């Protein structure tokens, strides 16, 4: 296959159509030629700071054009971008930097990481290479790993997930995400998360215009689709809920007819919410993906398939998956167990730095998710093993209770955790982002009681003002539980 490096692919796109927009965030747009020049200049500067092939560069930049320029510059040196949230507390950032040992940190203020890391160069948000920095093309080079995102998992300890994929692309192959040369991706998700980063990078490499929102906003997402003619939208159920909650007159104000595909992933989507989107946009535009950042295996389901297999996340499209019981035995269709995955490509899809995989000798690995297959080979997700609540001898999966709470129009987000109880072992505690006056506790519990069996009902309800999930749909249940203990 005609594989070429990411830098070469971007250079060829710039040469073919230099004035076509490559990336937009807020009011800032870089053309393909502009991205090539800015990326090359930053790469030359990073090289003077010691960045070379195989090195990590930590990217602590917020959603911005600078984020994309940083990735391009790192690839041009054969190095690996290692993204983290720009809002990480200093202690968490220090832990990741100590683990990754990057040559440079993009997005951190010089001297902000303490004396132990004072020798690591930091380039703050808005940094531009000094006047006179070279902008001549660099030798073509391919990063052995094109990304190395982080994950705290259920332990809270950081680990790097270094991809097994080099920074190279099949120059003649179709985009797996449906991107086209001249198309447009609208990305409202945070780029330090794996999914949003993958979609933005794939879009730009396919020749699509990546329109990045600085942060998620429901109406701004629709506005961006209309303004830029978005053809692909990346979402997570948290975003879908907030967009669908917009008043009809606001949502209908925007022309979204250019949309060809709406991807959603990262967290389970309540069936009622997915049905709302199918009713709005049509099943043929909706597509869902389930996988870990580790990418051992992937399932995909289209909207029409989902209508026939309501609640499923699809059939295995890459690698292998199986469901097993606690003793490691495969279970029959319709029986819930732990989901195990295995790559079939012959080379590792990732490696951990700072952790060990939960793996069997024959190559099967688990990310801790529960689920089951139906008779047709479609996968359905339960919850993560670490999140399951045992209360009075019964298993309660938080995602099920949360999905029902989100059906209430006044509930913006919700997290369910188990708190210790002498009688039942644990009781269910609901943390709800909502206005108590709009949905009093008695009303919320009555709403849930019409939809859930009694033992799944929260014993206590706590109201909060701040979002419980980030814009990527992620929440740290264990941290929220620990805070309440």
Tell me about this structure.
This protein is an alpha/beta fold. The protein has three domains: 3-261, Rossmann fold, CATH 3.40.50.12780; 268-385, Roll (Luciferase, domain 3), CATH 2.30.38.10; 388-484, GMP Synthetase, Chain A, domain 3 (2-Layer Sandwich). It has 13 helices and 28 strands. The strands form seven sheets. A nine-stranded mixed beta sheet has the order 3-2-12-11-13-14-15-16-17, with helices on both faces. Strands 18, 19, 21, 22 and 23 form a five-stranded antiparallel beta sheet that branches. Strands 5-4-6-7 form a four-stranded parallel beta sheet, with helices on one face. Helix 1 (6-16) packs antiparallel against helix 2. It starts with a strand and ends with a helix. The mean pLDDT is 92.
User: How many domains, in number, for the residues?
Assistant: 3
Under CATH at level 1, the class of the largest domain stands as: Alpha Beta
The helix content is 25-40%
| Average pLDDT over all residues | 92
Biggest sheet record: 9 strands, mixed
Report the count of strand segments.
Answer: 28
Rg estimate, integer Å: 23 Å
Strand order of the largest sheet: 3-2-12-11-13-14-15-16-17
Beta-strand residue percentage: 25-35%
Terminal residue distance? 55 Å
* Tally of DSSP helical segments: 13
List low-pLDDT spans.
none
* Approximate shape: globular
Short description:
The protein is an alpha/beta fold and 485 residues long. It folds into 3 domains: 3-261, ANL, N-terminal domain (Rossmann fold), CATH 3.40.50.12780; 268-385, Roll (Luciferase, domain 3); 388-484, ANL, C-terminal domain (GMP Synthetase, Chain A, domain 3, 2-Layer Sandwich).
